[in-house]
């Protein structure tokens, strides 16, 4: 556990941003809410792009192809 220098909340050692006050441990300052909102929008955009990329692709087919690639890698073959 470590203590947030901004609001003195106790957070986990791996926590990058304080959940209480949005203090960013790597930046050493509080991240303003507009930046968080922007990051959230970017995240939603990425998810949307992924959904579009996978549209019409059978999930099973994708998994089977992935397994095939790994099987070939294990055997040392080129794929
Ligand atoms: Zn804090």
Q: Could you characterize the architecture of this molecule?
A:
By secondary structure, the chain is mostly helical. It has 2 helices and 4 strands. Helix content is 47%, strand content 10%. It has one domain. The protein has a two-stranded antiparallel ribbon. It has a two-stranded antiparallel sheet with strand order 3-4. The termini are far apart. Strand 1 and strand 2 form a beta hairpin. Bound molecules: zinc ion. Residues 4, 6-7, 9, 18, 20-21, 23 line the site of zinc ion (ZN). Zinc ion is lined by residues 4, 6-7, 9, 18, 20-21, 23.
What is this structure, in a nutshell?
The chain has 79 residues and is mainly alpha-helical.
Kindly list the characteristics that best describe this protein.
binds zinc ion; mainly alpha; two-stranded antiparallel ribbon; 47% helix; 79 residues; two-stranded antiparallel sheet; single chain
Helix content: 40-55%
Low-confidence parts lasting 5 or more residues at pLDDT below 50?
none
Mean pLDDT: 85
Look at the helices and sheets and give the structural class: mainly alpha
Q: Name every ligand kind in the structure.
A: zinc ion
Strand content: 5-15%
Largest sheet: 2 strands, antiparallel
């Amino acid at each position: 556990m470590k203590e947030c220098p901004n609001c003195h909340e106790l957070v986990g050692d791996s926590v990058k941003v304080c959940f209480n006050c949005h203090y960013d441990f790597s930046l050493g300052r509080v991240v303003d809410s507009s930046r968080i909102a922007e990051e959230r929008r970017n995240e939603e955009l990425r998810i949307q792009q992924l959904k579009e990329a996978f549209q019409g692709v059978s999930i099973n087919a994708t998994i089977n192809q992935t397994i095939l690639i790994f099987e070939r890698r294990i055997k040392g073959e080129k794929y």
